[in-house]
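User: Predict the complex.
Assistant: Input components as received:
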Amino acid sequence: MDFRPTEDQRALRAGVRALLAGRYGREALRASVDTGVAVDRGLWRELGEAGFFALRLPESEGGVGLGLPEAVLVFEEAGRALVPGPLVATHLAAGVVPGAAAGTAVVTAFDLGGDLVAHLGEADAVLGAAGLPDGEPVRAADPLTPLHRVAPHRVPRRGDVGAYVAEGALLTAALQVGSALRTVELAVRHAGEREQFGQPIGAFQAVKHLCAQMLVRAEVARTAVYAAAVTGGAGEVAAAKLLADGAAVDNARDCLQVHGGMGFTWEADVHLHLKRAWVRAEQWRTAAEAEELLAEELLDSAG
Amino acid sequence: MDLTYTDEERDFRARLREWLAKTLPELPARPSPDDWPGRRAYDLGWQRRLYEAGYAGLHWPVDAGGRGATPTQHLIFLEETERAGAPYVGANFVGLLHAGPTIAAEGTAAQRARWLPPVLRGDEVWCQGFSEPDAGSDLASLRTRAVRDGDDYVITGSKIWTSHAEVADWCELLVRTDPEAPKHRGISWLAMPMDAPGVTVRPLRTLAGSTEFAEVFLDEVRVPVADRVGAENDGWRVTMVTLSFERGTAFVGEVVACRRTLGELARTAKANGRWDDPALRRRLGRLYGEFGALWRLTQWNVSEAERSAGGVPGIGGSVFKLAYSHARQELYDAAAEVLGAASLSLEEEWTLDRLSSLSYTIAAGTSQIQRNIVAERILGLPKGR
């Protein structure tokens, strides 16, 4: 037993981090907020070339032939960088929807559990649906997750996407973990720089303890996500999503608090993490669904 | 990211299971919680059986009489003994997990030969004299004085929260040998016999009604200088060495037990109808997810410990303890919700567990101290004034 990522896995993660740091750093993120264009087709293709979407396709089908453990590591990096767009749906569509694996197609999904769908205007296809449905644009809370509302009869039946739910939830959880770890860093940096009462606010235990608790949440969630990626167990995947949603949302909230008034501004990046974390918490599997699934497994295991 | 066990580890588990299945039915009946001499005899008897079967001091170095097992084997041992319902380490705790490893690392050959074998064989019990009424979280401010008088130290002061003091043979004692030095630099580590003249033990009653620990008063107690481990005034470092034996395995048995309790909670709730309340069901589902993650975090920390020099787990200890102590309290609060008004009865085992769980965010470093550690040593935030 060695739970830690292998050298190859760490190298893969470092490679994706370097790619995203160069290609989608803070300036690029803020530029997409300003233009309102969430999906950058050029970046999408570069991600495709880097194997982001084809990661788990067998090499015989032109993929990279890796597994869920590698996938959660690279999705963690995308979550850290707040890369917008239907990353999970496109990854799941690799090998199913032409162009998804290569990143030449943008594929979204009805993963919000209702008649709202993200990134419809930018998508070439919807996972599990025939053709692109029409939709009415809805003003979205997250500036980088545009939403459309479609007619109820155009929403795919649950069975059409059911096969994707567990993996979708796990990869979304990995995005959440990346965000949760990133907001710890942002909070710690601000707490170390910002001075009040003649000292960095991070020297005050009230602030310090918020930061410490953020790390605890993120580390527990990260462990749950990695374990679920290794075992693929239904309960572990549900737990991973549940804990990662909590870590991303609560950490963004605490990060906002540590930033004080700056945290409430459009200028700070904190709200982008929080709003995206809210979106992801609704995707694939909500807390209520995860808890019910876990309760069922608990009762089964108790006999 | 490999969660599978090696053939060797699987063999180890299988042999241990076999031994437990054969041995546990032979154990005498458990003594009542208030029967301290009975508890001592029971715990030492269990240690003797471990010794005879070759499982004593599993995680101790071979040259100290241990088995030199890997952290993973230790994890398997703790997991399997808890699963099988074997006795807890009990009165052997300090000897096996604190005093013994300290002597193994820092003691002279004569000290190791005198004190280590009786711990492994289940002949002697150790207790810990660290905390004082005015030195809790700020342990290094301890004031119990030890003054040299010929070949002896003469010790006066008091210790608190000392578990098993009533039945211990020895106490690993931290004393101040240089009151002028900075607080971390004037402390020494002594082995004190609990039957020495001047030692008075007064049991402390916990809020659970039991006497799990005691105050120890020391009135001019004489301890030979030869029974000091490490150099004079180097006791703080000597004590911290013990911590390097922490290999991520501290709560393995407890996490296994909590997961079993969750299953029992679900069964009870199903039987008494409360399972139909979605809020309670979801609460238990969440706890099931959290304890599953805590088990994985244990495996993560053990993986780290197994492959880092000296076996010191990286950031794991404090992060784990913060999450676990909170989850454990939450577990027994949920148990009270499952029981309803019956949770007010001490006849319910979970009620006592609920009361005991309150110590978890205090003992072995409060959650507030743990958060300071995480914030300052892991996140690098500045120390406060």
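The two ends of chain B are 41 Å apart (CA to CA).
Let me know if you want any component modeled separately.
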